[in-house]
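Hi R.,

As promised on Friday, here is the backbone we talked about, encoded as structure tokens. Could you run it through your design pipeline when you get a chance and send me back a sequence?
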């Protein structure tokens, strides 16, 4: 099946006011998959090449960490996927800034980079932060200097296609940006661009259990397009965009990073799996938490529900996987070694249907 590109990724939520209505409490049937004790890989909807590459590495005996990084590198290198790496959509100044985190279950180590420019594989740099420093997170110019110290070459990440999209946005900019006037929790129409939200951010997360039963994960992104330079989302934040506990499970996320940052969802999902919840149930719980804690009117639809989407992905120690989103239309990819990877619909809290 063809990879879901950014232009079709908008189907994950649907546009506000675009002839859609919410159906509360709707959730698709359980879509967990067990690996039968063998390796398993789960990724976001754009991760079909990632899960297939990662499973090839796992089958050949690679560790879960080597496998997930090799998997997302395929997507980071693809200029046609504008959600990560090379060709990622830029910030408001037309500069691509990348975020990534990795976490290794057996050693419980983590590494991350944020607002990294001119290096198309931030996941590799994040791994070096984990393995070659006493830190977890490096940002901006310091992250770039560190990458260059380890032999990474600077290169232009803005492709002609992503440049054209940035120019179109620049030419049509008015109140549709991230700068907000003074406002109260009750204010709605203050220049928010949530109606465009699924067209302007994207991420890939990839989690795996190897044949030794060890877990690792990676989340990598170009973040919110047209963002204020220096903005950092949840992807490089351990406990929010990624968390791994080798005794329990691993979780990652895509979607509105700001919502996930204020809820630290990944660590909560892993904790919920440790208390006996399935990966899907734990992901749905994180979605409910965000929905319940979204208080600002500008971030709500007419019914008080989040006017944005966040999707979570998880795998437990037994090799069961699951995914859930706030709104219907999200997908995840999985490869359990029984043939090519496949795409499945994520569970959800609310379903959007045509009026």
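Update: got your reply. Pasting your designed sequence below so it's all in one thread:
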């Amino acid at each position: 099946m063809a990879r879901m590109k950014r232009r079709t990724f908008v189907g994950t939520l649907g546009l506000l006011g675009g002839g859609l209505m919410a159906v509360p409490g709707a959730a698709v049937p359980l879509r967990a998959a067990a690996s039968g004790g063998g390796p398993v890989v789960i990724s976001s909807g754009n991760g079909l090449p990632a899960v297939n590459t990662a499973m090839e590495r796992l089958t050949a005996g690679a560790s879960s960490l080597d496998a997930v990084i090799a998997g997302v590198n395929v997507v980071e290198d693809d200029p046609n996927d504008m959600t990560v790496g090379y060709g990622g959509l830029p910030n408001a100044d037309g500069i691509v800034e990348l975020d990534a985190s990795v976490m290794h279950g057996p050693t419980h180590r983590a590494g991350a980079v944020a607002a990294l420019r001119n290096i198309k594989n931030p996941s590799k740099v994040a791994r070096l932060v984990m393995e070659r420093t006493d830190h977890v997170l490096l940002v901006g110019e310091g992250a770039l200097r560190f990458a260059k110290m380890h032999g990474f070459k600077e290169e232009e990440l803005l492709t002609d296609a992503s440049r054209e999209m940035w120019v179109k946005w620049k030419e049509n900019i008015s109140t549709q940006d991230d700068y907000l006037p003074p406002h109260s929790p009750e204010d709605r129409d203050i220049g928010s661009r949530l109606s465009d939200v699924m067209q302007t951010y994207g991420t890939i997360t990839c989690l795996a259990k190897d044949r030794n039963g060890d877990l690792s994960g990676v989340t990598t992104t170009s973040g919110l397009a047209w963002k204020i330079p220096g903005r950092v989302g949840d992807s490089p934040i351990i406990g929010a965009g990624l968390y791994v506990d080798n005794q329990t499970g691993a979780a990652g996320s895509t979607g509105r990073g700001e919502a996930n940052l204020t809820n630290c969802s990944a660590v909560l999902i892993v904790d919920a799996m440790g208390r006996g919840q399935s990966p899907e149930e734990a992901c749905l719980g994180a979605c409910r938490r965000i929905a319940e804690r979204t208080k600002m009117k500008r971030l709500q639809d007419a019914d008080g529900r989040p006017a944005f989407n966040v999707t979570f992905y998880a795998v437990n120690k037994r090799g069961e996987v699951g995914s859930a989103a706030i709104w219907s239309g999200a997908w995840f990819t999985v490869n359990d070694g029984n043939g090519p990877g496949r795409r499945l619909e994520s569970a959800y809290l609310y379903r959007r249907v045509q009026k």
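One thing I noticed while checking it: The first helix runs from residue 6 to 9.

Thanks again,
M.
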